[in-house]
Amino acid sequence: MDKTIKYINENKKRYLSELEEFLKIPSISTNPENADDVKRCASFVSDKMNEAGLENVKIYETKGHPVVYGDWLKAGDDKITILIYGHYDVQPVDPINLWTNPPFEPIIKNNKIYARGATDDKGQVYIHLKSIEAILKNESKLPVNVKFVIEGEEEIGSEHLTPFLEKYKDMLKCDYVVVSDTAMYGEGQPAITYGLRGLSYNEILLTGPNRDLHSGSFGGTVENPLNALCNIISKLKDEKGKILIPGFYDDVKPLSDKEREEFKKLPYDETVYKSDLEVDELFGEEGYINEERRTARPTLDVNGIWGGFQGEGAKTVLPSKAGAKVSMRLVPNQDPDKIDKLFTDFVTKLAPKSVKVEIKNLHNAKPAITPIDSPAMNCAVEALKKAYGKDVLFTREGGSIPIVNTFQEILNAPTVLIGFGLHTENAHSPDEHFDLTNYYTGIESITYFLEELGKIK
Amino acid sequence: MDKTIKYINENKKRYLSELEEFLKIPSISTNPENADDVKRCASFVSDKMNEAGLENVKIYETKGHPVVYGDWLKAGDDKITILIYGHYDVQPVDPINLWTNPPFEPIIKNNKIYARGATDDKGQVYIHLKSIEAILKNESKLPVNVKFVIEGEEEIGSEHLTPFLEKYKDMLKCDYVVVSDTAMYGEGQPAITYGLRGLSYNEILLTGPNRDLHSGSFGGTVENPLNALCNIISKLKDEKGKILIPGFYDDVKPLSDKEREEFKKLPYDETVYKSDLEVDELFGEEGYINEERRTARPTLDVNGIWGGFQGEGAKTVLPSKAGAKVSMRLVPNQDPDKIDKLFTDFVTKLAPKSVKVEIKNLHNAKPAITPIDSPAMNCAVEALKKAYGKDVLFTREGGSIPIVNTFQEILNAPTVLIGFGLHTENAHSPDEHFDLTNYYTGIESITYFLEELGKIK
Questions:
Q1: Taking CB atoms and an 8 Å limit, are B399 and A229 in contact across chains?
Q2: Does B317 contact A429 at a Cβ distance shorter than 8 Å?
Q3: N or C terminus of chain A: which is more exposed, having fewer CB within 10 Å?
Q4: Contacts for A258 with CB less than 8 Å, ≥ 6 apart
């Protein structure tokens, strides 16, 4: 593979300009007004698959945003088959005013590329495409059979991916699924994620009086839905971070002593963590260390809240409606559907008779644990060690990649999570960026990884 | 005055079209972008003062929005002098989507005129101008000396009115101040307001992490300012409506048995009240009846709240900032400045170390009680009885008219509050409107009122 690695180093400039093109497309899957941009982004991905030398490249329409497929299956039956998954859709950009530069006009600063989707997940998807391109160009064959599935709905729950996987089960048959949508442990410290948290994301809508009222003329006689909403939310979690929804912890699989020892070994630095976030104090569930709280324990967070007058100045209104988005991160073996029900029942019970309450579930994802000792996992460890010259850590991730379970259930294939992002790269936030060192080293890593996978008998 | 009353009845059509012009001007004092409209509205008022026959009409610039002055002082020294106060500025219009018709394109439905400012306070200001016009036109003199002060900052706290009153103390000297910015007790039931609640309006801003975070990658390790904000707000008032800020009730003057008897006499109908608001249950402070809660007891309401993702769909963000506007209605003898301090100290104490808290006071108003047995008050009772053919009720108002105290302090003049609005007319809400019967009968009432005042020796 030396020739290929040399080629990769000679083509960095082009890899960067191509990534910039990818990042210029505002493929925000949750915004109806960006639907055409999402389509355009799918075409971009399929074009790049063809340029990389993949075959059977095709954009599969779904009831939502399209899925882009491509493969290269000439490695032979004695070689394993991997399915590389990623997503070309991105998160919304608000609060837009907090971006230093426009989110869809990528710029480079201190060897980092800034744009929405840079680290989550366009940059990491592109690593795989460029590695495949480099190998086919220089070795004219891949060490293993490869299939690509790049979807456009990951940021909104991959709703239409499951029917797609079921429909094309045979076409997508594979030994392993490979996903690069997670983070390294830190700068220069490669990591493989073996655990992911699940998610239950709900919206609470309260209605008090049938119209906005003058808080002077009516204040004191009618329930204010904003006060009621705050009261409800304040009863969901106690002051020590424990979630108070009855039955919430029933199915939580306790961390083993072995796992907790591993967590203690992680080179976590509280001072660095706090100063990065500029907080005087951290807040988390009693009895667990930060890395456990972040990745291996369930949480409850208000993701958004609204109601009444938000403008400048003083408007004395007693509002009719109040709303909040509340999500819970789940861990093995919590079931999002069961948690939904517990949440809905509890919130309904907490809501006073003086308001009407409506609860919508917006997004669910199951937590996941993947085996850390599979042959493919070992290949990943070898490849990352070779590319980064450093031992690999096994970590858990606080976020969710809903489809990891789906792949297990439908394709019966375990997932290998090789991430090249960093937790400090503002995924889902203003000024999202991606470290170019990891972009280029990532392309090398995947190249070594495919080489290693080729040795599996 | 028969000639004048006849004239009023013959000119209703013109009175209506002129009011429509007044209501078309979007004089929203809190919006910087409407500053020119506010100016334009001041000119409209001064033009109408001239047309009415007032003299020395002048627009007085202030550091904020201008005050419009006009007078007629030829009644003679043996006659009393009244100062008629009102405001030409209006509340913001959001939520704009809940308006049936555009707020600044007045329309008539079922003998009501719909537009922002219709009842609060343009319609009521115009009643006085048209009465003066009618009397001067038909009697060529007024029964008393009259001064007009129509300001443009009532909805934002009348910040620059006080310096204006102090500067022109001598010019504004008067025996009584007359204000029509309150409500009747109900349809066809005239009322005179003798008590007003005060206000302390504050904004709470919390900052957690220095940027919006991915709730998956960080959730569980850092305080979420939205959760923290809900916790703080939930601790400000208990489930029985009692405010929990230490010392909050210390200066509250208890209602006398006499007052409580009067409250019991008010023809309040809970069924009607609830069905108007479409609520299954009312909510208010334990131990008080609805009308006491609405007008004679202090309250705490969240007027607005914001933070995180408010758009469609599910964005898994752990936000950096959270904000809320919280106001308290005050009663005699609570002091807004003292209440501010209690509020600020308590909220600061409640805020966890894991967030930064900032509290801004946006607006204060003192509560007020006016004497119900002054000669002018008796004139008002006679005039309303004559115009409406019904006995007048003495009521308190839940809202604030900050300047009632200011007039007492600076001009040493008591205020007579003659209101022609209705509590169901959506002041401060979408579809604000004003009953045209009260508009026309109001013009008659003020005419009779001036006639009665002319009899005062």
A1: no
A2: yes
A3: C
A4: none
* φ, ψ at A288 (rounded to 5°): -135, 150
Residue type, B36: D
Question: Does the predicted model carry a pTM greater than 0.80?
Answer: no
Q: Which residues of A are catalytic?
A: 89, 154
- What's the mean per-residue pLDDT of chain B? 95
Please check the confidence at residue B414 and state whether its pLDDT lies above 80: yes
Express each pLDDT in B222-277 by its tens digit.
999 999 999 999 999 999 999 999 999 999 999 989 889 888 988 899 999 999 99
Interval B8-30: pLDDT, tens? 999 999 999 999 999 999 999 99
CB atoms within 10 A of CB B400: 29
A237's tokens: 């979690």
Longest dimension (CA), chain B: 80
- pLDDT above 80: residue B371: no
pLDDT tens per residue across span A48-102: 999 999 999 999 999 999 999 999 999 999 999 999 999 999 999 988 999 999 9
Q: What homologous superfamily does CATH list for B2-196+367-453?
A: Zn peptidases (3.40.630.10)
Structure tokens at B445: 């009432």
SS3 (DSSP) at A71: strand
Whole-angstrom Cα distance, residue B22 to residue B36? 15
In CATH terms, B201-252+298-364 corresponds, of 1.10.1040.10, 3.40.50.300, 3.30.70.360, 2.60.40.150, to 3.30.70.360
For chain B, the domains span: 2-196+367-453, 201-252+298-364
Q: Is the bond preceding A95 in cis, omega lying within 30 degrees of 0?
A: yes
How distant, in Å, are the alpha carbons of A232, A256, A448, B224 from that of A326? 11, 29, 42, 11
Considering chain A, what is the average pLDDT of its residues? 95
Q: Give the burial class of B412: count Cβ atoms within 10 A of its Cβ; 0-12 exposed, 13-18 middle, 19 or more buried.
A: exposed
Cβ–Cβ contact A97 with B under 8 A: no
Q: Is there a contact between A302 and B227 if contact means CB atoms under 8 Å apart?
A: yes
Other C-beta atoms lying within 10 Å of the C-beta of residue B323: 20
Burial of residue B13 (CB within 10 Å: 0-12, 13-18, 19+) is exposed
| Candidate from B92, B241, B273 with C-beta closest to A315 | B92
Q: Is A76 on the interface with B (CB under 8 A)?
A: no
ipTM of this complex: 0.78
β-bridge pairing A198-207 and A321-330 = antiparallel
C-alpha closest to that of B301 among A312, A307, A237: A307
